[in-house]
Amino acid sequence: MSSALDRLKSLTDKMSSYELERKTNRVELKKLFFELKIDKKIKKFEDIFLFKAINLSGASLLEENLGEIKEGKYLQILAISYNKNAQVKSKNISLAYYGRVEKVDTLLKNKVVEFIIRYRFEKSFITLEHYHSIIKKFGSKSEID
Fold this sequence. Notes:
By secondary structure, the protein is of the alpha+beta class.
């Protein structure tokens, strides 16, 4: 019995930790939204989550070389929109352009990388909530043969 309670407590602690981290992340993400001047292109902060994804060019997002610059590239934040009714379904939109990555201040480059990671963290929660609500529609009605 005690181990079941311990597992429940551990799960509850982890969930509340994620929720606290999510709140902190969203606050920091909003600060970066204005600091990186993305508000010049997207007026409302919440509207960044309408994009399918946000990516960047000019620096790596891979964990093993996070933030490493890609020489000869331009540092910019790119949003990917999707319209299933359009002839060209997916479209890249530049949200912010900072110039040749070699000439961009390291602090600014790191803030751009941080923005993308924080965006993806929040977007993963939004996606999780979306699929959770869809699964609820199935309830226990579906059976697998």
